[in-house]
Specification:
The structure holds two protein chains of two kinds. Chain A has no helices and eleven strands. By secondary structure, chain A is mainly β. In chain A, a hairpin with a 6-residue loop joins strand 5 and strand 6. Chain B is mainly β. Chain B has no helices and eleven strands. In chain B, strands 2, 4, 5, 9, 10 and 11 form a six-stranded mixed sheet that branches. In chain B, strands 1-3-8-7-6 form a five-stranded antiparallel sheet, with no helix packed on it. Chain B is globular, with a radius of gyration of 14 Å. The mean pLDDT of chain B is about 90. The chains are: A mainly beta, B mainly beta. Chains A and B meet through strand 4, strand 5 and strand 10 of A and strand 4, strand 5, strand 9 and strand 10 of B.
Chain lengths: ~110, ~110
């Protein structure tokens, strides 16, 4: 039982390049999330998927798109990376019982945009 | 937009003493509260969650809720150097307690002095 996995662990991009961050969970959770963490800003929600087939914007969605590929996988895409997107990105999945808001995090992706 | 406030610290506590961490929340309707521990360079790890119906004890950790003053406390008894980390407080982003993500505080940096 691997929990929540993320790839890649590290990535360096140039401004304007695109990339997709991958996330998968093997806990059979319905809900999945993407957060970013910046020094002094804390964790902020980018997008979430309450169930397979649905996605919704969080607090800071601009510059990102997501795809809920199936129940296990939730990807985050940067179409045209900007230096402001330099951050640590965490994927999480939500346990459905007792409440969907009990979340478990993956190891993170450290992204640098030059 | 919900807000969660934490003192950034660092909070320095001698080994074996009780560490007391607090967070205040803005939405009086919040029903559940989460404490995560995050070691430097690692992902957040869920250590405790409580609902609005009462306090909770789990081993050396106790979470207490003061609804009237809108703050949540995390007490760590018999503090160990391995407890040195940043502690994040979070509440559900929606009032319904569904799968809409969490709003996090910026965290308190705890240092346990041997």
């Amino acid at each position: 039982n691997a929990g929540v996995t993320q790839t890649p662990k590290f990535q360096v991009l140039k401004t304007g390049q695109s990339m997709t961050l991958q996330c998968a969970q093997d806990m059979n959770h319905n809900s999945m999330y993407w957060y970013r963490q910046d020094p002094g800003m804390g964790l902020r929600l980018i997008y979430y998927s309450a169930s397979e087939g649905t996605t919704d914007k969080g607090e800071v969605p601009n510059g990102y798109n997501v795809s809920r590929l199936n129940k296990r996988e939730f990807s985050l895409r940067l179409e045209s990376a900007a230096p402001s997107q330099t951050s640590v990105y965490f994927c999480a999945s939500g346990r459905d019982f007792p409440r969907a808001d009990t979340q478990y995090f993956g190891p993170g992706t450290r992204l640098t945009v030059l | 937009q919900k807000e969660v406030e934490q003192n950034s610290g660092p909070l320095s506590v001698p080994e074996g003493a009780i560490a007391s961490l607090n967070c205040t929340y803005s939405d009086r309707g919040s029903q559940s509260f989460f404490w995560y521990r995050q070691y430097s360079g690692k992902s957040p790890e869920l250590i405790m969650f409580i609902y609005s119906n009462g306090d909770k004890e789990d081993g050396r950790f106790t979470a207490q809720l003061n609804k009237a003053s809108q703050y949540v406390s995390l007490l760590i008894r018999d503090s160990q150097p391995s407890d040195s980390a940043t502690y994040l407080c979070a509440v559900p982003s929606d009032s319904g307690g569904g799968a809409d993500g969490l709003t996090f505080g910026k965290g308190t940096h705890l240092i346990i002095q041997p």
